[in-house]
Amino acid sequence: MAAEDEDSDVSLPMVMDSDSDSESQEGALGPVAFMEIFSQPRVSPVVAGLGMSCGPAIDLVTGCDLLTVSGQFEALNKLSQYQPAVLMLSPPCTVFSQMQASNKGRRKDPDLWDRQYADGLKMWNFALLLFQRQLDAGRLAVIEHPWLATSWKLPSTQALAQRESVSQYVFDQCLFGLRTAILKEPVRKRTRLMSNWPLLANEFTQLCNIGTCNHEPRAHIWLQGAEGGLSRCRRAQEYPPGMCAALARACARQILGIQIPRPPVAAAGGDADESDVELPS
User: Fold this and answer.
1) What is the pLDDT of residues 76-119, one digit of tens each?
2) DSSP per residue over the chain, as a string?
């Protein structure tokens, strides 16, 4: 059976034994204000720059392979040690993208795709487990994927989304400065956050339209293709500076009780009739 047909059978992975369910103060290095997993340090330096403490970023590029049991143990142990007030989760979205969904049934190597999908699903479900651990500990968690990613439709995701404290927020990254690497063309990249953090509604609910557009040129470029030898899609995996700053402002309000004003934006304009769909996401 193909990987896409097995989604309904997926359950959250448990890589720790029952003795590890409760957090121990032994070896604690926290609590800290912020921590990010499935990411190199992106938001953490901005949060630290506002005077708040951060745990280590955990990702393959920082030396932790979250596809392995040992990597997942490491992440769960560090989560228990640092006890972040806010946990940011950014698992890979490639196998859940619109382009991958549109290619269903037309793949040259279905077995390779099944393996890639299984890896992507494993990391997504581990992110959901981390999300659940944060909620159960009474702390805040944020998980991010493109707004139309098929990961949002998985039963495991929907089960968490239905929890009373959890909400979803949709916004366009172009409003936070997402641009292509060379030509600096604006990229809409409509994105969804799932979180139990109500303050996100103040920063992450705006869509780019004729009344809110803050960039020139006004038209958005598709993520297909490359610039300067770098895939536009890969470039768009990096959070724009404005998005990192917005998350840090929310942390400052949550942790320090201070409200940092948003930077001024350019005059409004836009292309209200443009399709919201970008391939790949």
Assistant:
1) 999 999 999 999 999 999 899 877 766 666 677 888 889 999 99
2) --GGGGGGG------S-GGGSS--STT-----SEEEESSSSSSHHHHHHTT--B---BSGGGT--TTSHHHHHHHHHHHHHH--SEEEE----GGGSHHHHHTTT--S-HHHHHHHHHHHHHHHHHHHHHHHHHHHTT-EEEEEEETT-GGGGSHHHHHHHTSTT-EEEEEEGGGGT-B-TTT--B---EEEEEES-GGGGGTS----STTTB--SS-SPPPS-SEETTEEHHHHTTSPPHHHHHHHHHHHIIIII---PPPPP-PPPB--TTS-S--S--
